[in-house]
Target: Disulfide bond formation protein B
Amino acid sequence: MPAINPRWIYLFVLLSCAGLLGYALYAQHVDGLHPCPLCITQRAFFALAGFFALMGLIFNPVHLGRYVANGLMLLSCIGGGAVAYRQVWLQGLPPDQVPACGPSLEYMFDNLPFAEAFRTLMMGDGNCAEVVWTFWGLSMPTWSLIWFCALGLLALFNMLITPKAD
Model:
């Protein structure tokens, strides 16, 4: 099997994350879809994965650096995937089991201790269980979960391949 240049994978992950974040901003500001706290958290994880891909693209690390860059991308994807899975799970709950809507994200971080605000954020609320957008029958958090899994697998693959010399 021919060796693959890891920079192409970094570039693909970076462009994917930028495109996904760009669409999320379009959906928010043009289509009027207001993100819930779990959606905002998923955006942060896409931004982190994209940032680590950008660092890999710029510095083209070798040996230990390649494991670190791809490991951080993978951890970002695992974290984002866990948040997306939580939201998909909330969306699948029967209406009588959906948690009540909570305070806004700004209110939580302004008025609650950080640990409590973070715990409340990760639990999600009724807003997170509402499906307001679908594509091919899948909600936005489901698509996020699919992308986190795909990008995480690419990061893992990029960590394990034998790189082609530039």
